[in-house]
Amino acid sequence: MIPLTDGWGRAIKSLRVSVTDRCNFRCRYCMPAEGLEWLARDEVLSFEELERVVRVMAGMGVDEIRLTGGEPLVRRDVPTLVALLARVPGVADLSLTTNGVLLDRLAGPLVEAGLHRLNVSLDSLNHARFAEITRRDALDRVLAGLAEAERYPALRPIKLNCVAVRGFTEVEIPALAELARRRPYVVRFIEFMPLDADEVWRRDEVLSGAEIRALIEESWGPLEEIPAKASSTARRFRFADGAGEIGFVNPVSEPFCSSCDRIRLTADGQLRTCLFSRREWDLKEPLRTGASDAELERLIRFAVSHKELKHRINDEGFVRASRSMSQIGG
Ligand code: SAM
Ligand code: SF4
Fold first, then answer.
1. Interatomic CA distance for residues 127 and 292, integer angstroms
2. Which atom belonging to ligand 2 lies closest to the Cα atom of 325?
């Protein structure tokens, strides 16, 4: 097997697959209140098409698949897709990122289908503030979804993702960090990136991982760094007394592009080699016009050979990505 490698020598091991651009939330850092113009149904790749892309990539050493969106659980029958992908030879790690609102019904079927890991977004533990940031009054349903997910020991660790926005997140930090101490959750804080469809992102709204760490330590005492995989997006920490794990995903203040092993597939079959890509590589057309696996492989290798060296958020004249987070698949 010839590994899938980009033009800078990085091996690509991880594919994020967006299964839909639709979502039942309207998080302020991601989507406008009125939603976006959704893809037509026939533009969205079928489960069979998704399975084929994953199989071709797994043949090149991509062993980590994460399903995302939009909200992946609003796509009908997602457990059926999970079952298809779990059977693809070479897929060692199959995970899903969700807002959690449909998890109370779907955690069981997802585990049964072969899901290994789960990331759930959670920005506030206060009902009013949760509704303010997501524009949906759904905290209780997300907590019920998490409680349901916890019932399945196969789904570990459960990671909670909080997008940290200055002026909003500071007061949430002690309670979110405490969750990591008393529940089987790794709580991760993600720096706000300029990927929101409303284009309201401003640099001074980025609450950095270092600032959050200081706030956690004020409440809960010192954090100690623990080893993370070289390709990990998160720096990992545990509380000095050993209870619980916190992660910091710091793409703005501490970019980790040099060890990036990720590519992305949008719901309409466009391959993106970076979250911040301005260019996409169409796989849908070849998939639908009879391309062979060898042809798909050549196309994917060609696209990956052009993978961007790094994002340019911190550079003068930064130009935003060609689509927003929910359309790309975060
Ligand atoms: N709907 C699912 C969810 O929210 O978990 C999956 C898709 S969402 C686009 C994937 C991740 O991107 C979530 O953890 C979300 O919080 C994060 N995200 C969305 N917009 C972001 C932004 N502007 N900056 C940083 N992270 C963002
Ligand atoms: Fe939907 Fe996830 Fe975007 Fe929130 S972050 S609007 S849940 S896609």
1. 51
2. 3
1 in a structural domain: no
Q: In angstroms, what CA-CA distances link 13 with 90, 96, 132, 175?
A: 11, 16, 37, 34
Would the pTM count as exceeding 0.90?
yes
| Amino acid of residue 12 | I
Owning domain of residue 112: 14-328
Contact at 8 Å (CB) between 207 and 164?
A: yes
pLDDT per position as a tens digit, 293-320: 999 999 999 999 999 999 989 888 888 8
Question: What span, in angstroms and rounded, lies between the C-alpha atoms of 226 and 253?
Answer: 19
Ligand 1: centre distance to CA 30 (Å): 7
Tell how strand 245-249 and strand 185-191 pair up: parallel
Q: Is residue 5 part of a domain?
A: no
**330 C-alpha to ligand 1 centroid (Å):** 5
Q: Is residue 228 a part of any domain in this protein?
A: yes
